Automatic annotation (TrEMBL):
<dbReference type="InterPro" id="IPR014721">
    <property type="entry name" value="Ribsml_uS5_D2-typ_fold_subgr"/>
</dbReference>
<dbReference type="InterPro" id="IPR005517">
    <property type="entry name" value="Transl_elong_EFG/EF2_IV"/>
</dbReference>
<dbReference type="GO" id="GO:0003746">
    <property type="term" value="F:translation elongation factor activity"/>
</dbReference>
<dbReference type="GO" id="GO:0005739">
    <property type="term" value="C:mitochondrion"/>
</dbReference>
<dbReference type="Pfam" id="PF00679">
    <property type="entry name" value="EFG_C"/>
</dbReference>
<dbReference type="GO" id="GO:0070125">
    <property type="term" value="P:mitochondrial translational elongation"/>
</dbReference>
<protein>
    <submittedName>
        <fullName>Uncharacterized protein</fullName>
    </submittedName>
</protein>
<feature type="domain" description="Elongation factor EFG">
    <location>
        <begin position="267"/>
        <end position="356"/>
    </location>
</feature>
<keyword id="KW-0648">Protein biosynthesis</keyword>
<dbReference type="InterPro" id="IPR047872">
    <property type="entry name" value="EFG_IV"/>
</dbReference>
<keyword id="KW-0342">GTP-binding</keyword>
<dbReference type="GO" id="GO:0003924">
    <property type="term" value="F:GTPase activity"/>
</dbReference>
<dbReference type="GO" id="GO:0005525">
    <property type="term" value="F:GTP binding"/>
</dbReference>
<dbReference type="InterPro" id="IPR020568">
    <property type="entry name" value="Ribosomal_Su5_D2-typ_SF"/>
</dbReference>
<dbReference type="InterPro" id="IPR009000">
    <property type="entry name" value="Transl_B-barrel_sf"/>
</dbReference>
<dbReference type="InterPro" id="IPR041095">
    <property type="entry name" value="EFG_II"/>
</dbReference>
<dbReference type="InterPro" id="IPR035647">
    <property type="entry name" value="EFG_III/V"/>
</dbReference>
Length: 363
């Protein structure tokens, strides 16, 4: 207590005003903490995964893997006068929890809260009401689908625009292909590679090509979902001494990518959850049947030696897990419980993809 510590991430020097050891909902003030102690500090501005040292050590602990959100919903305060408290709550929650994200829908202007599931988002909406006295209007939860390509495809695109005076000219040649499994496991979603030999595309326009490719991946051609797991390789191109510029190469790359994705057999991906259900043994069959109806894949079903308790493990699409809390309570007389966590994104069934594409085209 009273010593100075340093936030390696922000390089800020902070004095420790108070140290407490937590016991459930009780706090015990302590003067010092040693190795292995789990304590809480007051008055220290920080975010999850920050590392503090005494200043003599200049390294940070490696960050934990943070998965991308799998579900989103629109949220806003019922009373516009509560917007300041709403913003404070969101700011604090996103600092505490790296799996909670916030962004604004450019089309509608809505504030979108994204997280790891229905319950995860419900908890934060409830905390806003309880801790900040902010009642919120909440939209229906939406699953965060993605799009990917399954084949390699080439592109050879010329962007040329003349409207009097300086125009726009840019040509890009190359190919796209899916990332391999090892790259995806490492968390990579987009890789851009420059294989241009010489100056057919001037070096200053290579970043423009990458920017255009990323912009095209923000909105897939099937249903408008983000394109993931893609490698974009530029091998050649052409520039004009007067009409080539940053915007021209951005647009050329963006249009080239959208065209080539059509030839790469695009596919929609959905988040799949690892689900573990614990129920009395008598309800084992009922739970397995319920998970099968939700397009789940049963991985294991274990019954205790005395037959009193069953644990069922399954992979289930997140879209099929809406309302499962109510379902498991009613089907097990309130004796069942479950936990789930994000596993990965997998290809949706053909019927589901056709439905999502139709909805996108209709809207």
């Amino acid at each position: 207590k009273g010593m100075f510590i340093y936030n390696i991430k922000s390089s800020k020097k902070i004095k420790i005003p108070r140290i407490v050891r937590m016991h459930s909902n009780e706090m015990e003030d302590v003067e010092f903490a040693g190795a292995g102690d789990v304590i809480a500090l007051f008055g220290v501005e920080c975010s999850s995964m920050d590392t503090f040292t005494d200043g003599a050590l200049n390294y940070a602990m490696s960050s934990m893997f943070v998965p991308n959100p799998v579900m989103s919903l629109a949220v806003k305060p019922k009373d516009s006068l509560m917007m300041n408290s709403f913003s404070k709550a969101i700011g604090r929650f996103t600092r505490e929890d790296p799996t909670l994200r916030i962004f604004t829908n450019e089309k509608t202007g809505e504030t979108i809260l994204s997280g790891m599931g229905e319950l995860h988002l419900e908890i934060y909406v409830e905390r806003m009401k309880r801790e900040y006295n902010v009642d919120c209007v909440v939209g229906s939860p939406a699953v965060n689908y993605k799009e990917c390509i399954t084949n390699k495809a080439t592109f050879n695109y010329l962007h040329r625009k003349q409207s009097g005076g300086s125009g726009q000219y840019a040509k890009v040649i190359g190919f796209i292909e899916p990332l391999d499994e090892d790259e995806i496991k490492k968390g990579k979603t987009f890789v851009f590679e420059n294989h241009v030999v010489g100056t057919n595309i001037p070096p200053e326009f290579i970043p423009s090509c990458e920017k255009g490719a990323k912009a095209a991946c923000d909105k897939g051609i099937l249903a408008g979902y983000q394109v993931t797991g893609i490698r974009v390789v530029v091998t050649d191109g052409q520039a004009h001494p007067v009409d080539s510029n940053d915007l021209a190469f951005q647009l050329a790359m963006s249009y080239a990518l959208r065209q080539s994705v059509k030839d790469a057999k695009p596919q929609i991906l959905e988040p799949v959850m690892s689900v573990e259900v614990t129920v009395p043994g008598e309800f084992q069959g009922t739970v397995i049947g319920g998970l099968n109806k939700r397009n789940g894949i049963i991985l294991a079903s274990d019954l205790s030696d005395d037959g009193t308790q069953a644990v069922i493990k399954a992979d289930v699409p997140l879209a099929e897990m809406f309302g499962y809390s109510t379902d498991i309570r009613s089907s097990t007389q309130g004796k069942g419980e479950f936990a789930m966590e994000y596993r990965n994104h997998q290809a949706v069934l053909k019927d589901t993809q056709d439905k999502l594409v139709k909805q996108y085209l209709t809207n």
